[in-house]
Amino acid sequence: MKLLVKLLLSLIILLLVLVSLGYAVLRSHWGIAAACRWISDATAYHLSIERLSHDWSHPLTFHIDKVTFGEDGQPALLIAGKLSLSLTARQLVSPAHFAQLTIEQGTLILSNLTPEATLPISADRLELQAVKLLNPYPTNCLSAEHINGVLSPWMPSQQALLGKKFTFRFSAEGVHVAHRHFDKLVAQGDKDAQRLTITALSGAVQRGTFEGKLSRSAEGEWQIPTLRLDNIRFQTDKGLADLFATAMLPPVTIQDLAINHLSIVGPDWVANDVSANGQNLTNTSGSAGHLALNADSLILGTEQWSQPHLRLTAAEGNIILDQFDAGWAKGTVSAKGQWLRKTGEIQLDTLSFSNIRYTLPADWRQFLQTPLPQAIHSITLNNLSVENGLLIDINVDYPFQMTAAHITGTQLQLAQQRQWGLWKGEAEYYAAAATFNRQDIRALWFTLSANSNRLSLQNIKGLVQEGPVVGSLDIAQSPTHPFALSLRGEKVPYAAFTQWFWPRPLSGQGNFSLHLKGNLPSLTAPPSSLQGAFTTPTFSQQVGVE
């Protein structure tokens, strides 16, 4: 028995001597260099350490100065000013697993880690202090400066450098993610396989701030209980429709959204000083939620809207326009209605314009020939109102202007099967003054009705100089648009009709009657054929143009 005790004491003393000798060797420059060479030769990684230090007041913690670590044949993955390793009893069975690993004043270069690599170390707790992160791949750009954070546990695996299950909290400055820059970012939460939960998120971006909470399910669906954006300014290369296209967004639900003084500049649009509130917004299983939005101004191409106010409600994929008001074309516009997702129909209960002064864009005729987007099949206006409008077309081929125009319309179908037109409804039109191809006409008035077969302008009335004109116009709703125009008047200058559509010179003044038939390539194009007669008390002109 005494012999066994002596043997055990001898082994313990020998072990202590070996540990002491190893400790002394590792504390020397020669010893730490030899250990680094041995690790580099025996593993698939290269390691360089300048100095190992230790404080007996913390006997299980070792400090390493100026560390460089990476895969063989690759540039360094980690360059650190100081690395601290806290040991645990687990080292006896898992030498590469530590109680805590602390990196201070270092740089992590993720692009120097090959995708198939698995790091040989792990820790119950990974702590970063003033660490810089780089991943300069063009398709997965990620970088950050002055990272301070804790990850627990840290169990790296192939394709998952941070591990598959952990809790985290961190702060960072100068963060670049997918070409987006954040001045500051603070977050805490946990990750479990594909499930991510961020219980607190805040930061500073583009001279503004943001804060919120969010989570992502294993199926990739995002839940955002709260999100607040304040005073953010940013630019995008996407069009307005593309920015909010459902296909561009992952499945997301925002329970409470608050936006204050947000400004966005796009390629051909600008939203300035936007404030909004949203509740239960989602694009899963069809759109849903409520959104109220105000802005100082909105610019779309050449159009500018001042002080727009918008309230939307979405349910079962349909979008209800509760209210829209804005300053536009030096007047105001307001609307209410809805878009039905299943049918692609826009139904506007009211659309009102007041005191607008609007010049039509040069391509407005081509625009009306362009099919509507796939999401819009038809457009119906239940009630249209235009009060004291000024409408101008400066096209040199046929300019016109309508002054002090008043229009009322009911059940007007302006598009069907994605084609613009006037397919149904009734309206009444009056303009105090109008000019068509440089010919004035006063007190122009008519009623309009449309159905699936024809478009009719009835009771056309107006004054050309001092001469009254009355008549009617019928246009068939077919691809060739055959039409019939009938006009008669008294004391009218005949040259006015040459300015409008009559192909032969006319002169003089007096009574007349006009009967004209032809075909229209479209409702906004000149006739492709004409047949008719212009008759006065003293002469009659016939016309036939194919």
Q: Would you write up a description of this structure?
A:
The chain has 546 residues and is mainly beta. Among the domains are: 42 residues; 161 residues, no CATH class; 101 residues, no CATH class. Helices cover 10% and strands 61% of the residues. It is built from 5 helices and 32 strands. It has a 30-stranded mixed β-sheet that branches. It has a two-stranded parallel ribbon with strand order 4-6. A hairpin with a 4-residue loop joins strand 31 and strand 32. It is rod-shaped. About 3% of the residues have low confidence. This is AsmA family protein. It comes from Rosenbergiella nectarea.
What are the defining features of this structure?
10% helix; 30-stranded mixed β-sheet; two-stranded parallel sheet; 5 helices; 546 residues; mainly beta
